């Protein structure tokens, strides 16, 4: 945790606490990330997928000082994510509860918190009290680096996890064992076949590949074939992936 500072609160984020017996093992069998990598100093980006490997929710996972897990997710998806996790709980002694007194904070630079696990250039992220002003510039900063997130941009049960650039942004581990949607995700990875990508592009006409439009930023998010990326912004981390020949 870090002391809060002015204008750092990501007001559209919320936290779920997952606690109980073997909570790390519970999440390990569900999410795309290796839960052994989650520590108080190393939050990890993860997805909860459909059995077909399509993104349902994406979030960051933190370890709290008491060993429970804190899921940093979209506030609008908090209840839906809690319900989904509860379905998988079955009879396990696991509790899934919202956290009201802790907020998610961000700064483009500085020394507070920890580097975003997706891409260090996204800035610093930490958990703290909610008595700070809302941060400004996060969305523009994130999209400027070509990073997409959330149901509006990733879609819900619409986009395969690797098409969300999860491999390039450290959102999946292929040596961790099984997770929901693992079979199709691993097959795509080992065959080297990711035919479409979520990309950020200059604002244009809406089409059937458009996911989100941000007129105030002059940007939009689209789901495009890799052989038809057109005027999409291709950051260096994505360019490196696209340079690898498809099998």
In brief:
With about 250 residues, the protein is of the alpha+beta class.
Overview of this structure, please?
It is a single chain. The protein is of the alpha+beta class and 247 residues long. It has 2 domains: 13-138, 2-Layer Sandwich (Gyrase A, domain 2); 142-242, Elongation Factor Tu (Ef-tu), domain 3. Helices cover 19% and strands 27% of the residues. It contains 6 helices and 11 strands. The protein has a 5-stranded antiparallel β-sheet with strand order 2-3-4-1-5. A 3-stranded antiparallel β-sheet has the order 6-8-7, with no helix packed on it. Strands 9-11-10 form a 3-stranded antiparallel β-sheet. Strand 3 (55-63) and strand 4 (69-74) form a beta hairpin. The chain is globular, with a radius of gyration of 18 Å. The termini are far apart.
């Amino acid at each position: 945790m870090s002391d809060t500072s002015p204008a750092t609160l990501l007001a559209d984020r919320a936290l779920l606490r997952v606690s109980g017996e073997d909570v790390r093992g519970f999440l390990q069998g569900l999410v795309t990330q290796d839960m052994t990598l989650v520590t108080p100093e190393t939050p990890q980006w993860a997805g909860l997928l459909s059995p077909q490997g399509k993104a349902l929710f994406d979030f960051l996972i933190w370890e709290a000082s008491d060993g429970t897990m804190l899921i940093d997710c979209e506030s609008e998806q908090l209840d839906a994510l809690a319900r989904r996790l509860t379905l998988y709980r079955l009879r396990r002694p696991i509790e899934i509860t919202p956290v009201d007194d802790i907020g998610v904070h961000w700064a483009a630079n500085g020394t507070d918190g920890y580097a975003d696990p997706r891409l260090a250039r996204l800035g610093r992220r930490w958990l703290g009290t909610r008595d700070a002003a809302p941060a400004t510039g996060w969305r523009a900063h994130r999209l400027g680096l070509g990073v997409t997130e959330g149901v509006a941009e990733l879609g819900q049960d619409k986009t395969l996890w690797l098409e969300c650039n999860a491999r390039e942004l450290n959102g999946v581990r292929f040596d961790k064992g099984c997770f929901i949607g693992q079979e199709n995700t691993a097959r795509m990875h080992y065959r080297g076949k990711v035919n479409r990508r979520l990309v950020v592009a200059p604002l244009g006409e809406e089409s059937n590949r458009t996911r989100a439009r941000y007129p105030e930023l002059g940007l939009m998010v689209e789901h495009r074939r890799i052989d038809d990326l057109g005027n999409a912004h291709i950051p260096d981390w994505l360019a490196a992936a696209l340079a690898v020949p498809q099998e």
